[in-house]
Task: inverse folding
């Protein structure tokens, strides 16, 4: 009786450990950043390799349609 209870508890703990390791793996992966990005109709260009700093390109507007960035020059 006691051995059955311990086997169920051990199985449950093992499942929790596997789920925890999987969640940790997927949440700790670095996010891939895009080279060009359109934000509020402004074109942003990534600076550096870490992907945290973007530069706004002056004189160019953009919009996203069907997953494509459409770039327009301001006259």
Result:
């Amino acid at each position: 009786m006691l051995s059955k209870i311990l086997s169920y508890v051990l199985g449950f703990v093992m499942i929790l450990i596997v789920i925890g390791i999987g969640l940790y793996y997927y949440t700790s992966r670095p996010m891939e950043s895009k080279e060009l990005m359109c934000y509020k109709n402004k074109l942003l260009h990534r600076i550096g390799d870490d992907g945290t700093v973007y530069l706004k390109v002056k004189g160019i507007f953009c919009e996203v349609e069907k997953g494509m960035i459409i770039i327009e020059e301001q006259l």
Remarks:
- The beta strands are 36-39, 42-47, 53-65, 68-73.
